[in-house]
Amino acid sequence: MKNQNSKIYKNQINIQKIENAILNLKKNSKRKFIESFDVAIMLGINAKKTDQNVRGSTTLPHGTGKKIQVAVFAHGKQAENAKKAGAEYIGMEDLSQKIKKNKIKFDVTVATPESMKIVSLLGSILGPKGLMPSYKLGTITSNIFEIVQKIKNGQIRYKNDKNGIIHTSIGKTSFSEIQIKENLIHLINSLKKNKPSKSKGIYIKKIFLTTTMGRSIELEKNFLE
After folding, report:
1. Are residues 59 and 166 in the same domain?
2. Which member of 33, 167, 172, 224 has the lowest number of beta carbons within 10 Å of its beta carbon?
């Protein structure tokens, strides 16, 4: 979600019930393409302190509606499992060379622990793009088949920005109102589970919902109850 901080404040309209917000955003989506439903969640954390940063992943019950391209660093049986799970790009040094030459585009990188000696050399390329695999996100794993399947089925990764805001997509305008609502509630429950122990006071401060080209609507938080 590019430039979402400014979008939140400059294009915000009145606080609405979640059902009304979803209906209004769907109604006003008149683009020739199916827009994404994006959410920005302001957390009550101090993002300058590493022990208060929030980072994790969760599989949305209705997926995201996006086709996720997955690159997997693995060989042998694990490479076969990656292929069965639907990964688009699989390899070791050969995959590394394709990435270095910018020959492929993908959304998530998954790696076996033994392949990290190759992947770590790609830090300057994958890191700035948020594509570096990690144990915390479950993308460094020996269970390649399960992780790739989860990603394909709607797993999202999230982390707060420097202002303590989580930005992510939770569906498409083609989704029903209940699907968007359930995806959002699932995401918020995941954030609550990952609440830093050092974070005090109100944790979920504000929630904004928008579409790719739409305005930002602040949601009433009583639906969380």
Report:
1. yes
2. 33
Could you tell me where the beta strands, DSSP code E, fall in 85-178? 89-91, 108-111, 155-159, 165-172
Phi first, then psi: what are they for 40, rounded to 5°? -125, 120
C-alpha to C-alpha distances, 16 to 30, 105, 216, nearest whole angstrom: 21, 38, 11
Range(s) of the domain holding residue 159: 4-64+155-224
What sign for the dihedral angle of Cα 7, 137, 223, 19?
positive
What tens digit of pLDDT does each residue of 25-77 get? 999 887 788 999 999 999 999 999 999 999 888 999 999 998 999 999 999 99
Least confident range from 10-14, 22-26, 29-33, 83-87: namely 10-14
Gap between the Cα atoms of 156 and 182, Å rounded: 14
- Per-residue DSSP letter, 140: B
- DSSP assignment, residue 52? G
What's the CATH number where 32 sits? Answer: 3.30.190.20
This prediction has a pTM of: 0.77
Output the six-digit token pair for 56.
């994790």
Calpha distance 145→150 (Å, rounded): 9
Q: Name residues whose C-beta falls within 8 Å of residue 83's C-beta, 6 or more positions apart in sequence.
A: 90
Q: What is the pLDDT of residues 121-156, one digit of tens each?
A: 999 999 999 899 999 888 999 999 999 999 998 889
Q: Which residues, at least 6 apart from 95, have a Cβ–Cβ distance to it below 8 Å?
A: 71, 72, 73, 89
Output the pLDDT for position 2: 44
Q: How far is CA 189 from CA 26, 30, 58, 203, in A?
A: 24, 31, 10, 12
Amino acid at position 71, single letter: A
